């Protein structure tokens, strides 16, 4: 595979800034902009998740970090060193691919040792390092097995150990759980996080799975059309999205359009044409009276009842149950209001037997607390 043209060499002077710096990076493929002026800092030891739909640019950004692609504009700095003129094989970076890419003719030990042998490290050091990694990923008893003799989870552990063998400064994970079934995926998410934290390596992972990102990452960057819309902890991004697209991509959400009617320090009142009653929020916002806004309310923050709420001046809607989805621990209700707005409410199934259970075609009331909605302006 031919290497792309190397851009002019730049300074490699050490800086005291973030461990990984992505400075106004753009990547274009002919007329298509895959990564659009991304600026991002990642601290040492972080597990940072790039989250977004297919085609949003997250995999291209990962390849730029690995050196498989060169930026059209901007700089990437790792531990103070500008990567502009550094070839992929000389970068302090390793990547674990979605397919794991284990060598079928090598056993587990040989796969893990491959990169170390390429660097002509002594046999004694290789043996010691491989033994440490086998213990780290709990694969000691599988050292002599070949890839076709491993389960999906075991193959993933081997691929992770191989990626860590050369002690990279930056570990890149490309859709690391995509090949696993749901139950194994949930287990491996926690296992991989524990291994990464024990090693202390900085990690950037790419995923389109929201639960995976929120389970594994210390911070998340939500991408759309080559740009990062928002960065923050899983809690920040989920509970306080900065725009409609982020709110709608992370989990499920009910979105209402409205206009600010009153805005004071401790209360905001919003009128929505989609609801019979106004929405009240128990804190002020930056938008002035008359501003059009969107109100996001998560389904799990909505209560559902056959009785009208006692505090029925604000924050409730009435409607008919159109659909119910039973998911074991949760039940999801889709309720259509007289204005034909479908509202989603999620109820935890904490009781095995419930008298007068809500069912299809029931007339119900949906309500939420004043602290539940998030007001979005774009």
What does this entry look like structurally?
The chain is of the alpha+beta class. It folds into 2 domains: 20-244, Rossmann fold (3-Layer(aba) Sandwich); 252-376, OB fold (Dihydrolipoamide Acetyltransferase, E2P). Helix content is 22%, strand content 32%. It contains 8 helices and 20 strands. It has helices at residues 58-66, 108-118, 123-136, 152-164, 182-199, 210-216, 234-239, 244-249, and strands at residues 20-29, 32-42, 47-51, 73-78, 81-82, 93-96, 170-174, 202-207, 219-224, 227-232, 254-263, 268-271, 279-281, 292-297, 303-305, 316-326, 330-336, 342-348, 363-367, 374-376. A 6-stranded mixed beta sheet has the order 6-7-8-3-9-10, sandwiched between helices. Strands 13-12-11-14-20 form a 5-stranded antiparallel beta sheet. The longest helix is centred in the middle third of the chain and has 18 residues, at 182-199. It is globular and about 75 Å long. The two termini are 43 Å apart.
As residue ranges, the low-confidence spans are 1-16
Strand line-up across the major sheet: 6-7-8-3-9-10
**N-to-C CA distance:** 43 Å
Helix proportion: 10-25%
SS-based class: alpha+beta
**Overall pLDDT score:** 92
CATH class of the largest domain: Alpha Beta
Looking at how many chains there are and whether they match, the oligomeric state comes to single chain
| Tally of alpha and pi helices | 8
Kindly identify the CATH topology of the largest domain: Rossmann fold
Described by the principal axes of the CA atoms, the overall outline is globular
């Amino acid at each position: 595979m031919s290497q792309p043209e190397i851009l002019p060499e730049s300074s490699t002077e050490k800086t005291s800034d973030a461990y990984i710096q992505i400075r106004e990076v753009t990547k274009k493929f002919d007329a298509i902009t895959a990564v659009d002026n991304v600026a991002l800092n990642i601290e040492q030891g972080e597990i940072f998740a790039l989250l977004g739909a297919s085609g949003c640019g997250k995999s291209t950004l990962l390849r730029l970090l690995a050196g498989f692609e060169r930026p059209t504009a901007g700089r990437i700095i790792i531990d103070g060193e500008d990567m502009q003129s550094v070839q992929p094989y000389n970068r302090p970076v390793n990547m674990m691919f979605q397919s794991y890419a284990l060598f079928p003719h090598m056993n587990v030990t040989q796969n893990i040792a491959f990169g170390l042998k390429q660097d002509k490290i002594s046999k004694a050091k290789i043996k010691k390092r491989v033994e440490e990694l086998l213990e780290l990923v709990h694969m000691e008893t599988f050292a002599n097995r070949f890839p076709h003799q491993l389960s999906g989870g075991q193959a993933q552990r081997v691929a992770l150990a191989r990626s860590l063998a050369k002690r990279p400064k930056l570990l890149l994970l490309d859709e690391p759980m995509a090949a696993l079934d749901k139950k194994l995926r949930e287990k491996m998410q926690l296992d991989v996080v524990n291994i990464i934290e024990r090693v202390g390596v900085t990690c950037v992972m790419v995923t389109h799975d929201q639960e995976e990102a929120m389970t594994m990452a210390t911070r998340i960057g939500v991408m759309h059309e080559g740009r990062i819309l928002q960065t923050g902890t899983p809690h920040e991004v989920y509970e306080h999205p900065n725009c409609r697209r982020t709110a709608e991509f992370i989990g499920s959400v009910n979105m209402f359009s409205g206009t600010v009617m009153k805005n004071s320090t401790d209360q905001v009142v919003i009128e929505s044409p989609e609801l019979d009653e106004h929405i009240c929020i128990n804190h002020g916002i930056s938008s002035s009276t008359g501003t059009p806004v969107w109100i996001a309310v998560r389904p799990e923050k909505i209560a559902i009842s056959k009785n009208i709420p006692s505090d029925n001046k604000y924050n409730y809607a009435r409607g008919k149950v159109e659909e119910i989805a039973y998911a074991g621990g949760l039940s999801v209700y889709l309720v259509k209001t007289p204005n034909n707005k479908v509202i989603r409410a999620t109820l935890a199934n904490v009781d095995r037997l419930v008298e007068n259970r809500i069912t299809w075609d029931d007339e119900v009331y949906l309500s939420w607390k004043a602290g539940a909605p998030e007001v979005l302006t774009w």
